[in-house]
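Objective 1b: paired records.
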Amino acid sequence: MLLISDTHIGTHRVGGTTPASREALRDFNISLIESMLSGSNEGHLVIAGDLFDDFEVDTRDFIAAYQILSGWLAGACRSLTLIAGNHDHNARGSKMSSFQALAEILVSAFGNRVHVLPIGRHGWVDPTLGVYAVAHCPNQDLFDQALSEVPAGVKWLVLHANYDNNFAVESDHSLNVSAEQAKAFNDAGTALVFAHEHQARSCRGGGVQ
Protein backbone atom coordinates (compact mmCIF):
# COMPACT_ATOMS: atom_id res chain seq x y z
CA MET A 1 0.00 0.00 0.00
CA LEU A 2 1.19 3.51 -0.88
CA LEU A 3 -0.38 6.05 1.49
CA ILE A 4 -0.11 9.74 0.64
CA SER A 5 -2.16 12.79 1.59
CA ASP A 6 -2.61 16.53 1.15
CA THR A 7 -1.50 16.61 -2.45
CA HIS A 8 -3.43 19.90 -2.84
CA ILE A 9 -3.60 19.79 -6.61
CA GLY A 10 -4.60 23.23 -7.84
CA THR A 11 -2.55 25.04 -5.20
CA HIS A 12 -3.00 28.76 -5.77
CA ARG A 13 -0.90 31.07 -3.63
CA VAL A 14 -1.08 34.84 -4.08
CA GLY A 15 0.97 36.38 -1.25
CA GLY A 16 4.67 36.74 -2.03
CA THR A 17 4.32 35.24 -5.50
CA THR A 18 4.37 36.30 -9.13
CA PRO A 19 2.37 34.75 -11.97
CA ALA A 20 5.50 32.89 -13.02
CA SER A 21 6.26 31.56 -9.53
CA ARG A 22 2.64 30.53 -9.01
CA GLU A 23 2.78 28.54 -12.24
CA ALA A 24 6.09 27.00 -11.21
CA LEU A 25 4.61 25.93 -7.87
CA ARG A 26 1.65 24.30 -9.58
CA ASP A 27 3.89 22.44 -12.03
CA PHE A 28 6.25 21.35 -9.26
CA ASN A 29 3.36 19.95 -7.23
CA ILE A 30 2.04 17.94 -10.18
CA SER A 31 5.52 16.63 -10.99
CA LEU A 32 6.12 15.62 -7.38
CA ILE A 33 2.92 13.54 -7.27
CA GLU A 34 3.75 11.89 -10.61
CA SER A 35 7.24 11.09 -9.35
CA MET A 36 5.94 9.49 -6.14
CA LEU A 37 3.57 7.25 -8.07
CA SER A 38 6.01 6.28 -10.81
CA GLY A 39 8.58 5.31 -8.17
CA SER A 40 6.23 2.96 -6.32
CA ASN A 41 5.76 -0.76 -6.86
CA GLU A 42 2.68 -0.90 -4.62
CA GLY A 43 -0.65 -1.97 -6.03
CA HIS A 44 -2.97 0.01 -3.75
CA LEU A 45 -2.83 3.81 -3.67
CA VAL A 46 -4.55 5.56 -0.75
CA ILE A 47 -4.96 9.34 -0.77
CA ALA A 48 -5.94 10.37 2.76
CA GLY A 49 -7.66 13.69 2.09
CA ASP A 50 -7.17 17.02 0.35
CA LEU A 51 -6.47 15.66 -3.10
CA PHE A 52 -7.36 19.16 -4.30
CA ASP A 53 -6.46 22.47 -2.72
CA ASP A 54 -9.99 23.87 -2.93
CA PHE A 55 -13.59 22.68 -2.93
CA GLU A 56 -13.64 23.57 -6.64
CA VAL A 57 -10.51 23.74 -8.77
CA ASP A 58 -9.67 24.99 -12.24
CA THR A 59 -10.60 22.60 -15.06
CA ARG A 60 -6.98 22.01 -16.04
CA ASP A 61 -6.15 20.95 -12.48
CA PHE A 62 -9.14 18.61 -12.47
CA ILE A 63 -7.93 17.07 -15.73
CA ALA A 64 -4.38 16.78 -14.38
CA ALA A 65 -5.67 14.86 -11.36
CA TYR A 66 -7.75 12.59 -13.59
CA GLN A 67 -4.77 11.87 -15.83
CA ILE A 68 -2.55 11.05 -12.86
CA LEU A 69 -5.04 8.73 -11.16
CA SER A 70 -6.39 7.05 -14.30
CA GLY A 71 -2.79 6.51 -15.35
CA TRP A 72 -2.14 4.80 -12.03
CA LEU A 73 -5.22 2.61 -12.43
CA ALA A 74 -4.18 1.66 -15.96
CA GLY A 75 -1.56 -0.57 -14.36
CA ALA A 76 -2.55 -4.21 -13.90
CA CYS A 77 -4.08 -5.20 -10.55
CA ARG A 78 -4.00 -1.68 -9.14
CA SER A 79 -6.62 -0.10 -6.89
CA LEU A 80 -7.31 3.35 -5.46
CA THR A 81 -8.88 4.59 -2.23
CA LEU A 82 -9.91 8.26 -2.03
CA ILE A 83 -10.61 9.67 1.44
CA ALA A 84 -12.30 13.07 1.80
CA GLY A 85 -10.46 15.83 3.66
CA ASN A 86 -11.51 19.20 5.00
CA HIS A 87 -10.86 20.94 1.66
CA ASP A 88 -13.46 18.63 0.14
CA HIS A 89 -16.24 19.85 2.44
CA ASN A 90 -18.59 22.80 2.07
CA ALA A 91 -20.92 23.65 4.95
CA ARG A 92 -23.76 24.54 2.56
CA GLY A 93 -23.68 21.03 1.12
CA SER A 94 -25.60 22.08 -2.01
CA LYS A 95 -22.76 21.77 -4.53
CA MET A 96 -20.58 18.90 -5.71
CA SER A 97 -16.89 19.32 -4.98
CA SER A 98 -14.15 18.64 -7.51
CA PHE A 99 -13.20 15.68 -5.30
CA GLN A 100 -16.70 14.22 -5.50
CA ALA A 101 -16.91 14.76 -9.25
CA LEU A 102 -13.56 13.10 -9.90
CA ALA A 103 -14.46 10.19 -7.61
CA GLU A 104 -17.71 9.64 -9.56
CA ILE A 105 -15.85 9.62 -12.86
CA LEU A 106 -13.16 7.22 -11.64
CA VAL A 107 -15.72 4.82 -10.15
CA SER A 108 -17.64 4.90 -13.42
CA ALA A 109 -14.48 4.15 -15.39
CA PHE A 110 -12.80 1.60 -13.11
CA GLY A 111 -15.61 0.13 -11.01
CA ASN A 112 -14.76 -1.57 -7.75
CA ARG A 113 -11.06 -0.88 -8.18
CA VAL A 114 -11.87 2.58 -6.82
CA HIS A 115 -13.09 2.93 -3.23
CA VAL A 116 -14.30 6.29 -1.90
CA LEU A 117 -14.79 7.42 1.69
CA PRO A 118 -16.80 10.67 1.38
CA ILE A 119 -17.30 13.33 4.04
CA GLY A 120 -18.60 11.86 7.28
CA ARG A 121 -17.89 8.23 6.39
CA HIS A 122 -15.53 5.68 7.84
CA GLY A 123 -14.61 2.13 6.93
CA TRP A 124 -11.96 -0.43 6.10
CA VAL A 125 -9.24 0.54 3.64
CA ASP A 126 -7.53 -2.85 3.71
CA PRO A 127 -8.84 -5.35 6.28
CA THR A 128 -6.04 -7.82 5.50
CA LEU A 129 -3.51 -5.23 6.71
CA GLY A 130 -5.79 -3.96 9.48
CA VAL A 131 -6.06 -0.47 7.92
CA TYR A 132 -9.21 1.55 8.67
CA ALA A 133 -9.95 5.23 7.94
CA VAL A 134 -12.21 8.05 9.07
CA ALA A 135 -12.81 10.81 6.52
CA HIS A 136 -13.26 14.46 7.47
CA CYS A 137 -16.56 15.08 9.26
CA PRO A 138 -18.73 18.21 9.20
CA ASN A 139 -18.04 18.91 12.89
CA GLN A 140 -16.11 17.67 15.90
CA ASP A 141 -19.10 15.92 17.49
CA LEU A 142 -19.67 13.80 14.39
CA PHE A 143 -15.96 13.07 14.20
CA ASP A 144 -15.89 11.93 17.83
CA GLN A 145 -18.91 9.72 17.12
CA ALA A 146 -17.11 8.18 14.14
CA LEU A 147 -14.06 7.50 16.30
CA SER A 148 -16.27 5.75 18.85
CA GLU A 149 -17.56 3.45 16.09
CA VAL A 150 -14.14 2.25 14.92
CA PRO A 151 -14.28 -1.54 15.28
CA ALA A 152 -11.90 -3.66 17.32
CA GLY A 153 -8.95 -5.21 15.55
CA VAL A 154 -7.82 -2.11 13.67
CA LYS A 155 -4.02 -2.00 13.46
CA TRP A 156 -3.67 1.31 11.64
CA LEU A 157 -6.29 4.07 11.83
CA VAL A 158 -5.93 6.75 9.14
CA LEU A 159 -7.40 10.14 10.04
CA HIS A 160 -7.65 13.53 8.37
CA ALA A 161 -7.31 15.64 11.50
CA ASN A 162 -4.97 17.32 13.96
CA TYR A 163 -3.42 15.57 16.92
CA ASP A 164 -3.65 17.20 20.36
CA ASN A 165 -4.12 20.69 18.93
CA ASN A 166 -6.09 22.93 21.30
CA PHE A 167 -6.52 25.54 18.58
CA ALA A 168 -8.49 23.04 16.48
CA VAL A 169 -10.80 21.85 19.25
CA GLU A 170 -13.46 24.47 18.53
CA SER A 171 -13.03 24.46 14.75
CA ASP A 172 -15.25 22.39 12.47
CA HIS A 173 -12.92 23.05 9.53
CA SER A 174 -9.99 21.38 11.27
CA LEU A 175 -10.81 18.44 13.53
CA ASN A 176 -8.80 17.24 16.53
CA VAL A 177 -7.89 14.00 18.26
CA SER A 178 -6.99 14.50 21.92
CA ALA A 179 -4.08 12.86 23.68
CA GLU A 180 -6.60 10.92 25.76
CA GLN A 181 -8.34 9.56 22.66
CA ALA A 182 -5.00 8.59 21.14
CA LYS A 183 -3.98 6.79 24.31
CA ALA A 184 -7.19 4.77 24.31
CA PHE A 185 -6.55 3.64 20.73
CA ASN A 186 -2.90 2.87 21.40
CA ASP A 187 -3.78 0.88 24.51
CA ALA A 188 -6.12 -1.20 22.33
CA GLY A 189 -3.30 -1.89 19.86
CA THR A 190 -4.27 0.71 17.24
CA ALA A 191 -1.71 3.15 15.85
CA LEU A 192 -2.99 6.48 14.50
CA VAL A 193 -1.78 7.81 11.15
CA PHE A 194 -2.64 11.47 10.58
CA ALA A 195 -3.11 13.26 7.30
CA HIS A 196 -3.89 17.03 7.37
CA GLU A 197 -0.84 17.95 9.47
CA HIS A 198 1.78 18.97 6.92
CA GLN A 199 4.82 18.58 9.19
CA ALA A 200 5.99 15.06 9.96
CA ARG A 201 6.24 14.02 13.61
CA SER A 202 6.01 10.89 15.73
CA CYS A 203 4.44 10.78 19.20
CA ARG A 204 3.57 8.24 21.85
CA GLY A 205 6.44 5.92 20.94
CA GLY A 206 5.25 5.66 17.34
CA GLY A 207 1.59 5.17 18.25
CA VAL A 208 0.84 8.51 16.60
CA GLN A 209 2.32 9.30 13.19
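Objective 1b, second protein:
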Amino acid sequence: MKILITAFEPFGGDNTNSSAEALKLIKEKIDDKNIVKALLPVEFGTAAKIAKDTAVKENANAIICLGQAAGRNAVTPEMLAINLRYASIPDNKGEKPLDTKVTENGHDAIFSNLPIRKMAEKINACGIRSAVSYSAGTYVCNDLYYNLLYRFKSENTGIAFIHVPKISEDFPASKIALAIEEAVKVI
Protein backbone atom coordinates (compact mmCIF):
# COMPACT_ATOMS: atom_id res chain seq x y z
CA MET A 1 0.00 0.00 0.00
CA LYS A 2 1.21 3.50 -0.85
CA ILE A 3 0.06 6.59 1.05
CA LEU A 4 0.64 10.17 -0.03
CA ILE A 5 1.02 12.54 2.91
CA THR A 6 0.92 16.25 2.15
CA ALA A 7 1.69 19.32 4.25
CA PHE A 8 1.74 23.05 3.65
CA GLU A 9 4.47 25.64 3.40
CA PRO A 10 4.35 28.63 5.81
CA PHE A 11 1.65 31.27 5.25
CA GLY A 12 0.17 34.38 6.77
CA GLY A 13 3.55 35.84 7.71
CA ASP A 14 4.74 32.79 9.68
CA ASN A 15 8.25 31.42 9.09
CA THR A 16 7.23 27.82 9.73
CA ASN A 17 4.21 25.58 9.37
CA SER A 18 3.77 22.79 11.91
CA SER A 19 2.38 20.46 9.24
CA ALA A 20 5.58 20.84 7.19
CA GLU A 21 7.81 20.37 10.23
CA ALA A 22 5.96 17.18 11.17
CA LEU A 23 6.04 15.90 7.58
CA LYS A 24 9.85 16.00 7.64
CA LEU A 25 9.84 13.59 10.60
CA ILE A 26 7.26 11.08 9.37
CA LYS A 27 8.80 7.70 8.55
CA GLU A 28 9.11 6.52 4.94
CA LYS A 29 7.46 3.22 5.90
CA ILE A 30 4.74 2.70 8.51
CA ASP A 31 3.88 -0.96 9.07
CA ASP A 32 3.34 -2.30 5.52
CA LYS A 33 2.61 1.15 4.06
CA ASN A 34 5.08 3.07 1.88
CA ILE A 35 4.89 6.82 2.45
CA VAL A 36 5.29 9.44 -0.28
CA LYS A 37 5.56 13.05 0.91
CA ALA A 38 4.64 16.31 -0.80
CA LEU A 39 4.96 19.89 0.43
CA LEU A 40 2.23 22.07 -1.04
CA PRO A 41 1.93 25.82 -1.59
CA VAL A 42 -0.78 27.64 0.37
CA GLU A 43 -2.66 28.55 -2.79
CA PHE A 44 -6.28 27.93 -3.69
CA GLY A 45 -6.52 25.39 -6.51
CA THR A 46 -2.75 24.98 -6.96
CA ALA A 47 -2.28 22.87 -3.82
CA ALA A 48 -5.08 20.55 -4.92
CA LYS A 49 -3.72 20.20 -8.46
CA ILE A 50 -0.27 19.25 -7.19
CA ALA A 51 -1.74 16.75 -4.71
CA LYS A 52 -4.02 15.18 -7.35
CA ASP A 53 -1.21 14.91 -9.89
CA THR A 54 1.16 13.42 -7.31
CA ALA A 55 -1.43 10.89 -6.14
CA VAL A 56 -2.06 9.74 -9.71
CA LYS A 57 1.64 9.62 -10.59
CA GLU A 58 2.47 7.64 -7.45
CA ASN A 59 -0.64 5.43 -7.75
CA ALA A 60 -1.47 6.24 -4.12
CA ASN A 61 -4.02 4.06 -2.34
CA ALA A 62 -4.70 6.79 0.20
CA ILE A 63 -3.99 10.47 0.75
CA ILE A 64 -3.61 12.13 4.13
CA CYS A 65 -3.34 15.89 4.05
CA LEU A 66 -1.94 17.85 6.96
CA GLY A 67 -2.59 21.47 7.77
CA GLN A 68 -1.86 23.84 10.62
CA ALA A 69 -4.72 25.10 12.78
CA ALA A 70 -3.16 27.67 15.09
CA GLY A 71 -6.04 27.90 17.54
CA ARG A 72 -6.44 24.18 18.19
CA ASN A 73 -4.99 22.28 21.13
CA ALA A 74 -5.42 18.78 19.69
CA VAL A 75 -4.68 16.85 16.53
CA THR A 76 -8.01 16.91 14.69
CA PRO A 77 -8.89 14.54 11.85
CA GLU A 78 -11.59 16.20 9.74
CA MET A 79 -14.85 14.34 9.10
CA LEU A 80 -15.81 16.30 5.95
CA ALA A 81 -15.02 19.09 3.52
CA ILE A 82 -17.46 21.77 2.36
CA ASN A 83 -17.92 23.29 -1.07
CA LEU A 84 -16.97 26.80 -0.01
CA ARG A 85 -13.97 29.08 -0.35
CA TYR A 86 -13.71 32.01 2.00
CA ALA A 87 -10.42 33.62 2.99
CA SER A 88 -9.99 36.08 5.82
CA ILE A 89 -6.38 36.54 4.65
CA PRO A 90 -4.95 36.17 1.15
CA ASP A 91 -3.30 32.88 0.19
CA ASN A 92 0.39 32.95 -0.73
CA LYS A 93 -0.52 33.92 -4.31
CA GLY A 94 -2.55 36.89 -3.08
CA GLU A 95 -5.99 35.38 -3.77
CA LYS A 96 -8.75 36.04 -1.29
CA PRO A 97 -12.00 34.39 -2.39
CA LEU A 98 -15.14 35.42 -0.56
CA ASP A 99 -17.97 32.87 -0.52
CA THR A 100 -17.25 31.08 -3.79
CA LYS A 101 -17.66 27.38 -4.51
CA VAL A 102 -14.72 25.00 -4.67
CA THR A 103 -16.45 23.07 -7.46
CA GLU A 104 -19.40 24.66 -9.24
CA ASN A 105 -21.48 21.48 -9.59
CA GLY A 106 -20.28 19.75 -6.44
CA HIS A 107 -22.28 18.67 -3.39
CA ASP A 108 -22.42 21.05 -0.43
CA ALA A 109 -20.21 18.67 1.58
CA ILE A 110 -18.34 15.42 1.08
CA PHE A 111 -17.48 13.07 3.93
CA SER A 112 -14.11 11.36 4.21
CA ASN A 113 -14.08 7.73 3.15
CA LEU A 114 -11.49 6.83 5.82
CA PRO A 115 -12.17 5.94 9.48
CA ILE A 116 -11.81 9.45 10.92
CA ARG A 117 -13.14 8.57 14.38
CA LYS A 118 -10.81 5.55 14.62
CA MET A 119 -7.89 7.79 13.66
CA ALA A 120 -8.69 10.16 16.53
CA GLU A 121 -9.06 7.21 18.92
CA LYS A 122 -5.71 5.71 17.84
CA ILE A 123 -3.96 9.07 18.31
CA ASN A 124 -5.52 9.48 21.78
CA ALA A 125 -4.51 5.91 22.70
CA CYS A 126 -0.84 6.79 22.20
CA GLY A 127 -1.13 9.71 24.63
CA ILE A 128 -1.57 12.60 22.21
CA ARG A 129 -4.70 14.79 22.43
CA SER A 130 -6.97 14.24 19.46
CA ALA A 131 -10.60 14.92 18.60
CA VAL A 132 -12.76 14.58 15.53
CA SER A 133 -13.45 17.91 13.84
CA TYR A 134 -16.44 18.65 11.66
CA SER A 135 -15.03 21.65 9.84
CA ALA A 136 -11.82 21.94 7.87
CA GLY A 137 -12.65 25.64 7.60
CA THR A 138 -12.98 27.53 4.33
CA TYR A 139 -9.34 28.32 3.60
CA VAL A 140 -6.82 26.38 1.48
CA CYS A 141 -6.96 23.30 3.76
CA ASN A 142 -10.65 22.79 3.04
CA ASP A 143 -10.11 23.65 -0.64
CA LEU A 144 -7.51 20.88 -0.92
CA TYR A 145 -9.65 18.39 1.00
CA TYR A 146 -12.81 19.06 -1.01
CA ASN A 147 -10.97 18.91 -4.33
CA LEU A 148 -9.40 15.54 -3.47
CA LEU A 149 -12.65 14.03 -2.18
CA TYR A 150 -14.45 15.26 -5.31
CA ARG A 151 -11.75 14.03 -7.72
CA PHE A 152 -11.35 10.57 -6.20
CA LYS A 153 -14.98 9.98 -5.12
CA SER A 154 -15.57 7.18 -7.64
CA GLU A 155 -12.21 5.50 -7.05
CA ASN A 156 -11.03 3.43 -4.16
CA THR A 157 -8.59 6.08 -2.89
CA GLY A 158 -8.95 6.80 0.81
CA ILE A 159 -8.72 10.49 1.70
CA ALA A 160 -8.42 12.26 5.04
CA PHE A 161 -7.38 15.68 6.27
CA ILE A 162 -5.79 16.19 9.68
CA HIS A 163 -5.29 19.57 11.28
CA VAL A 164 -2.39 19.87 13.70
CA PRO A 165 -1.75 22.57 16.32
CA LYS A 166 1.07 25.04 16.01
CA ILE A 167 4.34 23.66 17.30
CA SER A 168 4.65 24.26 21.04
CA GLU A 169 6.02 22.68 24.19
CA ASP A 170 2.90 20.45 24.30
CA PHE A 171 3.06 19.71 20.58
CA PRO A 172 6.63 19.50 19.29
CA ALA A 173 7.04 18.40 15.66
CA SER A 174 8.10 14.92 16.79
CA LYS A 175 4.85 14.42 18.74
CA ILE A 176 2.78 15.65 15.80
CA ALA A 177 4.63 13.25 13.45
CA LEU A 178 3.96 10.37 15.85
CA ALA A 179 0.25 11.24 15.89
CA ILE A 180 0.10 11.14 12.10
CA GLU A 181 1.94 7.81 12.00
CA GLU A 182 -0.61 6.41 14.46
CA ALA A 183 -3.48 7.67 12.25
CA VAL A 184 -1.89 5.97 9.22
CA LYS A 185 -1.98 2.63 11.03
CA VAL A 186 -5.81 2.46 10.86
CA ILE A 187 -5.91 2.70 7.07
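The beta strands are 2-8, 29-30, 33-40, 62-68, 76-78, 80-82, 85-86, 98-100, 109-111, 158-164. The longest strand covers residues 33-40.
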